[in-house]
Design goal:
The complex is a heterodimer of chains A (30) and B (478).
Chain A (H helix, E strand, L loop, with lengths): L1 H28 L1
Chain B lengths: L2 H23 L3 H6 L6 H12 L2 H14 L9 H17 L7 H8 L3 H34 L3 H50 L2 H11 L11 H16 L2 H9 L3 H32 L9 H9 L2 H39 L5 H24 L6 H27 L5 H21 L6 H19 L5 H4 L12
Classes of the chains: A mainly alpha (30), B mainly alpha (478).
Chain lengths: 30, 478
């Protein structure tokens, strides 16, 4: 039980950063 | 001197050197309040992250996780979302016309000096009380590290903060923030591997944490509804606080803001995740602490070698100082620009303005420590307002700022009602309302209802108030 919930938060944070970075690129290409 | 004292002496020496250098870089009011509005993404993002990370992150957050387990960590995701909202929705129009303070934006958008003064008063009172609580914490740290009395620590801590903030203004705050972020990062980056070595690696940490606190990796310690409302209050509290908005003015342009905030998000998430891991270590090594607030001090003193332990204490001090110096700027500008120069004495000559600005910071920085020394406010009221600080800021300013940017029909009367009503409702909910709903949500809903209702019931705003923010509005209609 521990590992998925533990690493899941790291993955979610990384996904958030990646999402923001992708939005930033899209915004600047527009 | 002990190694601890050397680490702190070196740390303060760097802070003073930056303050002294900033004095020469500060030529006018724009430099003093928004660092000239020319910051790049690295300094802008670093000061955003350092201001965001307070002593609360290192002591309070770790304490909550020690008690409530890993599910609390997921609330962290609300923080990048609130910054994302701020950059995507708020910043493009908000920064079209650069101001020196948040109340100055309120004056331009809501066409009135009175409403600017009102915003200044709300910021001033809430911020001064918040600073007061941080100074108490500073006194306690000084007592731990140097063995001096807590009161001497409070005075010394205030003096250090005031010296570099008064002389160097926002320029000093920004560059000391960069340095303090490095100290925080070093503290966390060195502490976590050592703590992990003590327990035998990440895999072992997870196993041991689960056997010490069987619910640590479940959703049972905090129900989903509670996590969502906490996340929502983090989100609202993050959008429109003055110390963050002013950093949008301090950065050069939208391109820099987007990059700077990306950098800030990465730093805030990384620091929090490292601190969360220290919380798990504390669960494993010290499962029986009476309160979670002891988790960080225990890790710093019992797990880390003495030198690294004091680096950790320096990191906590850095977290606290980088938040308080930004609040000094916010409160000082509210007093000297938004209240004194705006309402009391509008005829201050440009040469004297810089002096009025410095006196403003000196006053807002000295009042808390004078109150504390005379025995006023070391009690529950302070703790009460500190817990409410973010809620008060969110209830007062989210609607007037975000609403003013996205909704043309928003009026002066609506914004004033939202600020007063939001603050009153937050206090009322804290005292009389059920604890299951966060006061910020109650305050925000009242603020939103008043903002919309009163705006619709009052005459529409003049074109001159909308023209700075909406490109299709002609300031002088025919």
């Amino acid at each position: 039980m521990g590992a998925p919930m533990f690493w899941g938060l790291f993955v979610a944070c990384a996904a958030m950063v990646a999402g923001y970075a992708a939005w930033m690129r899209w915004e600047e290409r527009r | 001197m002990t190694p601890q004292a050397w680490i702190f002496a070196g740390y303060f020496a760097v802070v003073f050197a930056i303050g002294w250098h900033s004095l020469r870089a500060t030529r006018n009011e724009e430099d003093y309040w928004i660092a000239g509005g020319e910051l790049g993404w690295f300094t802008g993002g670093a000061t955003m992250a350092a201001t965001h990370t307070s002593a609360g992150t290192f002591i309070g957050t770790i304490g909550v996780m020690y008690t409530a387990g890993w599910s609390f960590g997921w609330v962290l995701l609300a923080i990048p979302l609130s910054y994302w909202f701020m950059v995507a929705v708020l910043a493009p129009r908000f920064t079209k016309q650069k101001e020196l303070t948040l109340p100055a934006f309120i004056e331009t958008r809501y066409y009135g000096k009175g409403i600017r003064g009102l915003a200044g008063v709300i910021i001033l009172i809430a911020t001064v009380v918040y600073i007061q609580a941080q100074i108490i914490a500073g006194g306690l740290i000084a007592n731990t590290v140097f063995g001096i009395p807590t009161t001497a620590g409070m005075v010394g801590f205030t003096a250090i903060l005031l010296i570099y903030t008064v002389i160097g203004g926002m320029v000093a705050v920004v560059y000391t923030d960069v340095f303090q972020l490095v100290v925080m990062g070093l503290g966390a980056v060195f502490a976590v591997p050592l703590a992990l070595r003590q327990v035998g690696g990440v895999g072992r940490l997870l196993e041991l944490a689960e056997s010490a606190h069987p619910l640590v990796f479940t959703w049972e310690t905090m129900p989903a509804v509670l996590l969502l409302t906490m996340g929502l209050s983090f989100f609202l509290g993050g959008i429109a606080t003055p110390e963050k908005l002013i950093r949008l003015y301090a950065m050069k342009d939208m391109r820099v803001i987007r990059r700077g905030v990306l950098f800030a998000i990465i730093m805030i998430l990384a620091l929090n995740l490292l601190v969360f891991m220290l919380a798990l270590t504390a669960i494993v090594l010290f499962p029986q602490l009476p309160t979670g607030d002891l988790a960080m001090p225990m890790v710093a003193t019992a797990v880390l070698p003495a030198t690294l332990g004091s680096l950790m204490l320096a990191a906590i001090t850095a977290a606290m100082m980088s938040t308080v110096d930004s609040l000094l700027i916010v409160a000082g500008s509210a007093l000297s620009v938004d209240i004194y120069q705006n309402l009391v004495n509008p005829d201050v000559t440009p040469e004297r303005r810089m002096w009025v600005d410095r006196i403003g910071i000196l006053v807002v920085g000295s009042v808390p420590v004078i109150l504390l020394l005379s025995g006023v406010g070391e009690g529950e009221l302070i703790q009460f307002i500190v817990l409410l600080f973010t809620a008060l800021m969110a209830a007062a300013f989210v609607m007037p700022v975000v609403g003013g940017i996205v909704w043309r029909r928003a009026t002066k009367q609506g914004a004033a009602a939202a600020m007063v009503g939001g603050v009153t409702a937050t206090f009322a909910w804290e005292i009389f309302g059920p604890a299951s709903v966060e006061p910020v949500l109650a305050g925000f809903l009242v603020s939103a209802a008043l903002f919309i209702g009163v705006s619709l019931a009052s005459p529409p705003p003049p074109a001159s108030a909308l023209a700075p923010y909406f490109e299709d509005v002609d300031p002088v209609p025919d």
